[in-house]
Design a protein that fits this description.
With 268 residues, the chain is of the alpha+beta class. It is 50% helix and 18% strand. The chain folds into 2 domains: 22-107, Signal transduction histidine kinase, dimerisation/phosphotransfer (DHp) domain (Helix Hairpins); 115-265, 2-Layer Sandwich (Heat Shock Protein 90).
């Protein structure tokens, strides 16, 4: 570095490029400024996403009201088009809801009441609702194993997280196959529990197994668009699981299918 001179410390000469205390302090200050700027950029991005999501709610609500009035006044020949508008507005409403949930989780603005949760009961409720939904597309959902397990957390948030994973599995398992859910005690970590959701689909490229939990990441753009996914469900699940002190991961099964594993600490 410029301006440095050799100096002797404890009988040894320091090299010319050894930084001085002032230079280290200046470097630390620069790092602090960079960190602050980065934090402001992230906060600004999250605020923009949250504000945009809120602002979209009002025109969407007016669109749904106008759609209802149009149905009352329209003749029979336009109902197909109105049905399409209604489906798209519902999709938009779901996307906005997911965006709001994601930003609240990332910014810590989501309230998290601590209450006892019966995981076996929660998983059974999700499986029942998912099985009804899956039957429309000739798919099945069943619990292959369950055990008694309780945790402390936000039941609604955890229900939504697991349901997102199950719905994702339903979208990607072929017609005529089954999505399997299992609840086990964690044999590797005492006091832990494992929830597994497996589909029978084509799986995910190895390089994408960690990235599927990032917002808006699509494994295959065309496939995901056909399935109706937005790339937010697994991201919301990952953050909700992390909020409960757990972790979520994915791996491919042999001969096929994706297995999502959720690990959670049980109530002590």
């Amino acid at each position: 570095m410029s301006g440095l001179v050799p100096r002797q410390v404890c009988g040894s000469w320091l090299p010319l490029d050894y930084p001085t205390a002032d230079e280290i302090a200046a470097l630390a200050t620069d790092f602090d400024l960079m960190a602050e700027q980065l934090q402001r950029l992230i906060a600004s991005h999250q605020q923009l996403l949250r504000d945009a999501s809120h602002e979209l709610r009002s025109p969407l609500a007016r669109l749904q009201v106008a759609l209802g009035l149009a149905r009352q006044r329209a003749g029979t020949g336009i109902h197909t088009e109105l049905d399409r508008i209604e489906r798209e507005s519902e999709n938009l409403n779901e996307l906005i809801a997911q965006l709001l949930t994601l930003t609240r989780l990332e910014t810590g603005h989501l309230e998290s009441p601590q209450e006892p949760i019966d995981l076996a009961e929660l998983l059974q409720s999700i499986a029942n609702d998912a099985a009804f939904e899956a039957s429309v597309s000739h798919r099945q959902v069943r619990i292959t194993h369950s055990t008694s397990a309780h945790i402390i957390g936000n039941a609604q948030l955890l229900h939504s997280a697991i349901e997102n994973v199950v719905r994702n599995a339903i979208r990607h398992t072929p017609a005529g196959t089954c999505v399997e859910l299992a609840l086990h005690l964690d044999s590797e970590h005492a006091g832990g529990v494992i929830i597994q959701i497996r589909d029978q689909g084509a799986g995910v490229p190895e390089a994408m197994l960690t990235r599927i939990f990032e917002p808006f990441v699509r494994v295959g753009d065309a496939r995901d668009r056909r399935s109706g996914g937005y790339g937010l469900g697994l991201a919301i699940a990952e953050r909700a699981v992390r909020l409960h002190g757990g972790e979520i991961s994915a791996h491919n099964e042999t001969p096929g299918g994706l297995n999502i594993t959720i690990r959670l600490p049980m109530a002590r």
